[in-house]
Design a protein that fits this description.
By secondary structure, this protein is of the alpha+beta class. It has 2 domains: 272 residues, Neutral Protease Domain 2 (Neutral Protease, domain 2); 93 residues, Roll (Pdz3 Domain), CATH 2.30.42. Helix content is 38%, strand content 21%. The chain is built from 15 helices and 10 strands. The strands form 4 sheets. Strands 1-3-2 form a 3-stranded mixed β-sheet. The longest helix has 18 residues. The protein is globular. The structure holds zinc ion. Zinc ion binds next to helix 6.
Length: 378
């Protein structure tokens, strides 16, 4: 809430209630920790997929269905805090859109014969983008964390079948199965498109306007009670910025063209790479990369080393038992960042039934990454 208060000129409501139900999903949590067999794991994963975890927004409240997956789960997004912070900002920001800015199809929603609006790029895409922008502007994310989160949106977003259907077409027809199966992209490609739109607005106005300024102007014009016109809204939006903004909508929102992120991102001093090969501090080389062979023991995360290659640098020997999770943890600082190059790292293995500490130095190397966003050095 403090991050939201730092982002918005004023909070849009005087009071707001988060209604949260936490389900006991510790059994499903085991599917992620690998302490069970594959057959059971697949069954649990299916159960997880059918649960419908999620949230729903209202004007002065939002409701959440979250899961307690138990202790020892090293997946941040599945921690209770991760689930809640991921969803809560998004749901709160729905006060802005669609609750405060929507077309007549939503304002006078026909519950008998629903007519879907083509503007999911606005209602969900921009909301999800704002959820991350709020964390960045509100100091929850570092600038680099923000770009890392957004690069995941680009990474998922490229798989939207843009040659087949435009984003507005998917949105307007989302009740048909052919389109519905791509609905999840409103949170992925939609959020990435929100960032591109923000960058394009900043580029065309020389940084005088940002996306949130345009949105809040339109919220002030319409608000909760009045609907904008479904068909002319994009023109109205463009009129708030610059005539050239129309091209962005024509090509990438209403059109079937694959995005060219760098055409817009320059406006936010960010550059996008399809692939980037770099000497990466984020990827400490692990002898697991290719220098050792292991066999599973007890079917879990404990591995027995069977063979060691010449590039091995930890000090493993065949027969050592290693806990993979513990090993990967040893390569991280307590705050989750990777250890510094050449920092001494200690990992404990079981050798001849005795715990043995191995001390080694972290190494870094060239790795190829895909869909990378970087700040342009200023
Ligand atoms: Zn939403």
């Amino acid at each position: 809430m403090e991050a939201i208060a730092a982002f918005l000129p004023e909070l849009p409501v005087d009071s707001y209630t988060f209604i949260i139900f936490v389900d006991d999903l510790r059994e499903i949590g085991q599917a992620f920790t690998g302490k069970i067999g594959l057959g059971k794991r697949i069954k649990l994963a299916k159960k997880f997929g059918n649960l419908g975890l999620g949230a729903l927004e209202h004007g002065n409240s939002s409701t959440y269905y979250l899961g307690d997956f138990g202790p020892g789960l090293d997946i941040e997004d599945l921690s209770l805090e991760g689930q809640l912070t991921g969803a809560a900002i998004h749901e709160f920001m729905h006060i802005v859109t669609p609750l405060g800015l929507h077309s007549q199809h939503i304002g006078n929603f026909n519950y008998t014969n629903p007519v879907m609006s083509k503007h999911l790029w606005l209602y969900e895409g921009i909301t999800e983008y704002f959820a991350h922008l709020v964390k960045y502007k509100g100091g929850v994310y570092t600038p680099d964390q923000f770009l890392k989160e957004m690069s995941l949106k680009f990474s998922s977003g490229v798989s939207f079948p843009i040659q087949e259907m435009s984003f507005t077409e998917m949105s307007a027809n989302v009740l048909q199965p052919k389109y519905e199966k791509h609905y999840g992209q409103v949170y992925q490609r939609g959020a990435a498109m929100g960032m591109l739109l923000d960058a394009e607005i900043q580029r065309l106005t020389d940084g005088k306007k940002e996306l949130i300024d345009v949105i809040l102007t339109l919220v002030n014009r319409y608000g909760a009670e009045k609907s904008f016109d479904e068909e002319s809204f994009i023109d109205e939006f463009v009129a708030e910025v610059h005539p050239d903004l129309k091209n962005y909508f024509t090509l990438y929102v209403e059109g079937k063209n694959q995005w060219k992120p760098n055409d817009q991102l320059i406006g936010m001093k960010v550059v996008y790479y399809d692939t980037l090969r770099e000497n990466s501090l984020l990827n400490p080389l692990s002898p697991y990369d290719n220098e050792i062979r292991t066999s599973d023991s007890k079917g879990g995360l404990e591995k027995t080393i069977t063979q060691v290659g010449s590039g091995e640098f930890v000090g493993f020997r065949p027969g050592d038992k290693v806990d993979v999770l513990e090993f990967l943890k040893a390569l991280k600082k307590p705050n989750g960042d990777p250890v510094d190059p050449d920092q001494e790292v200690i990992v404990t293995v079981i050798r001849d039934n005795q715990p043995k500490k191995l001390m080694f130095k972290a190494r870094y190397g060239m790795k190829t990454k895909v869909h990378v966003l970087k700040w342009i050095q200023r």
